[in-house]
């Protein structure tokens, strides 16, 4: 991939994985299913051809919920192979907050890698797919987007992959970025960013045949640790615990955590969706201080879903245990990139 010279329009490649933006209802009736190809998506978007020279590629035609981490790693390799100034990946919004972050972990190119989708199917009034695709292409084509890694663009907002979350099941403004907010806005076919671009180094891709099992468990009132024990007995390679508040769990679960850290990495995140896991404010059994003393790895500002993907990627790449801890701790402390 590489930026060209002269006055030519940027070249942007659009790769479609499916999702709501591609879904149409069957002629026999019933719910919408993914059917449209990438070429169908780009064909009739007003103004799209004026933003960039486009190429369209259909990678998959599936719901976002069907994608796996290995699928996403393959998309990252596909994107790296494109001769383009930017890449747009279209997919279902259900899993964008996860897939975009995993793409970001594997992306070391300066060219923008932009993920988008739609909250409404093409056949309904007010379908948002064309506007989101146009905005994503604007971002992918912009020189100002270079060096910012993977970005998520919907509703004319630009989100950093490490912070974006889907926080509403039906709203057009379903994607938010917590306390720090979006990194940019799209307007009049251009993008404006606030703040600098910062990037962590690219993680190594999955080793051949390696697909670690990493569980994500959210604690709850009365949690005795039974599910965590079942996960351990099933032989999982790692666990992410989504604790109460700033990283707290019931006392009974805390005792099981002590056994879990002897078998593999246990990452502590918060289930709130905003704010970091603390390090030394509370001292009761099951508090963040107690769990850290037992050997858990703090996720910092990373939400549980991002923390799970980071742990999966590190284990899939064969990272040594000490480096797993150091990497998650550092990236959790500064999810936007190193200072």
TrEMBL record:
UniProtKB keywords: Hydrolase
Pfam families, A to Z: Asparaginase (PF00710), Asparaginase_C (PF17763)
Gene Ontology terms describing biological process: asparagine metabolic process
UniProt similarity note: Belongs to the asparaginase 1 family.
SMART domains registered for this protein in UniProt: Asparaginase
Domain Asparaginase/glutaminase C-terminal residue range list: 213-326
A GO MF label: asparaginase activity
This protein's name: L-asparaginase
Domain L-asparaginase N-terminal stretches: 11-196
InterPro entries tied to this protein: AsnASE_II, Asp/glu_Ase-like_sf, Asparaginase/glutaminase-like, Asparaginase_C, L-asparaginase_C, L-asparaginase_N, L-asparaginase_N_sf
Active site: 20 (o-isoaspartyl threonine intermediate)
């Amino acid at each position: 991939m590489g930026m060209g010279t002269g006055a030519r329009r940027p070249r942007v490649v659009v790769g479609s994985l499916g999702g709501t933006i591609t879904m149409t209802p069957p002629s026999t009736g019933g719910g919408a299913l993914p059917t449209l190809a990438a070429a169908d998506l780009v064909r009739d978007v007003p103004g799209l051809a004026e933003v960039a020279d486009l190429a369209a590629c259909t990678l998959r035609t599936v719901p976002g919920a069907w994608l796996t981490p290995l699928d996403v790693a393959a998309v990252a390799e596909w994107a790296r192979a494109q001769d383009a100034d930017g890449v747009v990946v279209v997919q279902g919004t259900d899993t964008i907050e996860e897939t975009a972050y995993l793409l970001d972990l594997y992306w070391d190119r300066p060219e923008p890698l932009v993920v988008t989708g739609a909250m409404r199917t093409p056949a309904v009034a007010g379908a948002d797919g064309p506007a989101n695709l146009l905005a994503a292409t604007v971002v992918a084509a912009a020189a100002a987007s270079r060096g910012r890694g993977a970005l998520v663009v919907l509703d004319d907002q630009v989100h950093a992959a490490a912070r974006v979350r889907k926080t509403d099941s039906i709203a057009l403004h379903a994607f938010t970025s917590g306390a720090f907010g979006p990194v940019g806005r799209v307007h009049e076919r251009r993008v404006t960013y606030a703040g600098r671009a910062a990037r962590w180094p690219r993680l190594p891709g999955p080793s051949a045949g390696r697909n670690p099992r990493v569980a994500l468990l959210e604690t709850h009132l009365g949690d005795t640790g039974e599910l965590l024990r079942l996960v351990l007995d099933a032989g999982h390679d790692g666990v992410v615990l989504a604790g109460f508040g700033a990283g707290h769990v019931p006392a009974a679960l805390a005792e099981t955590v002590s056994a879990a850290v002897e078998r593999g990495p246990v990452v502590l995140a918060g289930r709130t969706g905003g704010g970091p896991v603390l390090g030394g404010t509370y001292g009761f059994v099951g508090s963040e201080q107690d769990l850290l003393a037992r050997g858990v790895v703090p996720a910092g500002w990373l939400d549980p879903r991002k923390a799970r993907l980071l742990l999966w990627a590190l284990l899939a790449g064969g990272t040594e245990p000490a480096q797993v801890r150091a990497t998650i701790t550092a990236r959790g402390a500064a999810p936007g990139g190193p200072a």
